[in-house]
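User: Is it possible to get a 3D structure for a protein together with its bound compound? The compound here is uridine-5'-diphosphate-xylopyranose. I've pasted both below.
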Amino acid sequence: MAKKIAVIGTGYVGLVTSVGLSDFGNYVVGVDINAKIVDKLNGGTPTIFEHGLEEYLQRNLKTKRLSFTTDIDSALKSAEIVFLAVGTPPKDDGSADLTQIQTVVQSIAKNINAFQVIVTKSTVPVGTNRWIEKQLTAAAPGKDFAVVSNPEFLREGKAVQDFFHPDRIVLGCESDLAREYMEDVYRALNLIHVPVVWCNLETAELIKYASNAFLATKITYINQMANLAEAVGADIHVVARSMGMDGRISPKFLHPGPGYGGSCFPKDTKAIAATGDEFGVDMSVIKEVVRANEKQKARVADRLAFLTGTVKGKTICVLGLAFKAETDDVRESPALTIVERLLELGAVIHAHDPEAMANFRFYLGEQPGDQIRYFDTSLEAAVGADALLIVTEWNEYRNLDLESIRERMRGDVIYDTRNVLDADKARDLGFTYAGIGRS
Ligand code: UDX
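Assistant: Yes, that's possible. Here is the predicted structure of the complex:
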């Protein structure tokens, strides 16, 4: 039977979850403290850039199964299930800041009247769901509830697709009644035979961190292998493709680049390392991944300096500011580290990104003088540049009009940290082309 659901938080996870669960036939109220966000969403306009989201949002608003509100109390009072999708940003020591979760748990305790299932979607450190259980027992004695851990594995840019076609659903659930509720919530996915993993709270929490840390490790591994391939004269793409032919390895997440970024991998790797420290367990592999990823980002500016002789006083055309293609998100984007370093070294930046320029400008902060300028097109950004640096693998950069770019640039260096260009064609046009993991 369709369930009445409140989703607390309308960020990436909360919004996609709200829209997706209502599309499954449930009645969903999305809650956010920001009235502007709520108004926008109720008007059918997504607050994040995500393929397909607008259509699903509008479709479900129309059915009246989906709405958004700032009134958390009324949303909680009428909900059978509450999804927690608030932020858990990293603190200075890498551990997760749970202030927002704590505030919501207090609101739940205040409003709970009948049996309620509290589902944690936010990525929270191992042990947090048990802690939520204890907090609620203490704050709402005698009330009937169950806590469920339901980590999400959505990728930005593909979040809608991932929501409707997940590889698996993980449910840390220790109550039979809550299990029946969760089976109802996700019933629509039975049709496509999505496997469901039922386990205890701690196992579900650890699955999320173990998966993300593993993927971050895989990327870091191929990045280091790419650096070695450059040094010894091998081609990393042939290496990666052949590695991927081994079914035990798989070809996914073996694309070398300027280092991983985004809202998950950098945060989750640090958080699981902090959990290891807390329990006195050696997490040296993950700690080394975090360190190596920082080095990979720093290496880009150094290598560009090597390719151009010096970047001081040079104009660098930076194509791609988002942490990956198909998103306007710049959180922990390698481009931030790289541009900051290039500015420090005295370069002038001509920046372009199809979606992420406004966010980048905000995260980078004001820069003195005219050291960084933003352009609407890559061709405009290339005018007068000494070097062209590709940081994000947007499709439009795969088909750059290199001839026109060559005419507009002052220098001839291309450093393609995603290997999106045709190296031979670039060299034929007279560019000094360097990719990643290719000599
Ligand atoms: C990730 C996880 O994939 C997702 O399951 C989780 O829920 C949230 O974190 P996301 O951060 O959206 O998703 O992006 P993802 O596509 O995983 O890429 C993360 C970073 O790794 C990006 O900076 C990307 O450019 C980089 N990456 C990815 C590589 O450098 N090489 C690869 O082969 C894959």
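The chain has a mean pLDDT of 96. The chain has 18 helices and 14 strands.
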